[in-house]
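User: I'm new to structure prediction. If I give you an amino acid sequence, what do you actually give back? Let's try with this one:
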Amino acid sequence: MQISIGKPVSGWSLLILEDDAGHTFEGKLSYVDDVLNIFMRAFRVFLESDQPVAIKFNEEGSDYTIVLGDRDKISILSNKGDTQTVQTLNITAKDFIVECLNELEENLPDWMLFADFDGKYADHEALKYACECTRLEIDGLRLGARVQLFQRPDWNSFLENRRFTHA
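Assistant: Good question. You get back a string of structure tokens that encode the predicted 3D arrangement of the chain. For your 167 residues, that looks like this:
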């Protein structure tokens, strides 16, 4: 499994997803979307609810939506002109969330500036502070992906039928 989110350059980046069977998806990430916040908001909603989450990106002329709804796979709906396709990759929601967060964190200042249309991070100290706050939130989401997915309803029924010894 490989998840790669390239460093944003000149308003563009590339998202590459590949599952262990070799099925791949490549999608562009454009400056018209606040990529960092779109991912983080979607991951937060997915981890805090039992509802599927659709993460939509505009490729400027086409678009695609990544759907997190099943723990063991992700679905991608692509719209390119009159052609619509649906693709499923065997990438777990946990792996998708954790690896995307790792990739985004690797180039965090660039992602913070990617959609900074009003210049709020023009000051280096403001950017540094915003990056540190975002890193803390990323750490929380990464931990949530590792822990909370095991607390979904199907796990709860399993746990209710088990006896545990408390120290």
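You can read the tokens as a compact description of the fold. Here is one thing that stands out. The beta strands are 2-5, 12-18, 24-30, 53-58, 62-70, 73-80, 83-89.
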